[in-house]
Amino acid sequence: MEARQHTDRHYDAELQELNVKILEMGGLVEKQIGNAISALVQRDDQRARMTIETDHTVNRLDVEIDDLCLRLLALHQPTAKDLRLITTALKITTDIERIGDMAVNICERTLELNQEPQLKPLIDIPRMADIARTMLRESLDAFVREDVDLALKVCRDDDAIDDLTNQLFRELSSYMIESPQTITRAIRLLFIAKYLERIADHSTNISEMVVFMVRGKSIRHLDHIPPSV
Questions:
Q1: Cα–Cα nearest to 161, from 195, 122, 114, 207
Q2: Is 3 left (phi over 0), alpha (psi -120 to 50) or beta?
Q3: Three-class DSSP labels, the chain
Q4: Most buried of the four, 37, 72, 76, 177, by CB within 10 Å?
């Protein structure tokens, strides 16, 4: 009995470690997004390069979490709720890692944009970044707290990012039509907007997986997000 209790305590501790590592990875990626946008707005090459360098840490955490999940599956053969938790964690880390890649991409476009005069004041992109960061943070909070309502809120918030992307596309298209010399800069800004849109999409993926983890129901590919599940 004592050996069984020790095993259970060890298992519970590893599950807690899994949550902690996912939050650590998510927090680091959220910071990457903030630093990437700050580098863009402030035209700060050094911050852009430093943000790119932090991606190595994100990748390391991705590998560590995968290893921990596989160890939990192999040694403890979890069932039901714990099995959904661990398999969801495996999928979530893929989305978090890709969000980190999007932050790196923003920094790469920033370094290119900084070689030319600024095209326009940046208003919509920082707003998009704030929404995207909040979506990421809330999707991970929903995962740890098993909060379906918060997960559904994140899914609905994706519409705001889409609206801002379309608005920015219309504005930058007018720049390109009126002044062909702005095309390269405008396209790079559009790329950044698309990266932020992808960040929001990955956060939505995380939230959809949270709903499945908690309720055992898939809301992927639905035409609209239900108020509750």
A1: 195
A2: alpha
A3: CHHHHHHHHHHHHHHHHHHHHHHHHHHHHHHHHHHHHHHHHHCCHHHHHHHHHCHHHHHHHHHHHHHHHHHHHHHHCCCHHHHHHHHHHHHHHHHHHHHHHHHHHHHHHHHHHCCCCCCCCCCHHHHHHHHHHHHHHHHHHHHHHCCHHHHHHHHHHHHHHHHHHHHHHHHHHHHHHHCHHHHHHHHHHHHHHHHHHHHHHHHHHHHHHHHHHHHCCCCCCCCCCCCCC
A4: 37
12-45 tens-digit pLDDT: 888 899 999 999 999 999 999 999 999 999 999 9
Phi, then psi, of 117 in degrees rounded to 5: -60, 150
At residue 121, the pLDDT reads 86
Which candidate, 116, 110, 91, places its Cα nearest to that of 205? 91
The single-letter code of the amino acid at 91 is K
- Place 224 in a pLDDT band, splitting at 50, 70 and 90: low
The backbone torsions φ and ψ at residue 218, rounded to the nearest 5 degrees and listed phi first, read -95, 130
Q: What is the mean pLDDT of the chain?
A: 90
Q: What angle do CA 164, 59, 38 make, to 5 degrees?
A: 40
Q: CB–CB of 21/61 below 8 Å?
A: yes
pLDDT value at residue 226: 64
Can you list the domains of the chain with their CATH numbers?
2-215 (1.20.58.220)
**Angle, vertex CA 86, rays to CA 82 and CA 87, nearest 5:** 115
| pLDDT of 3 above 80 | no
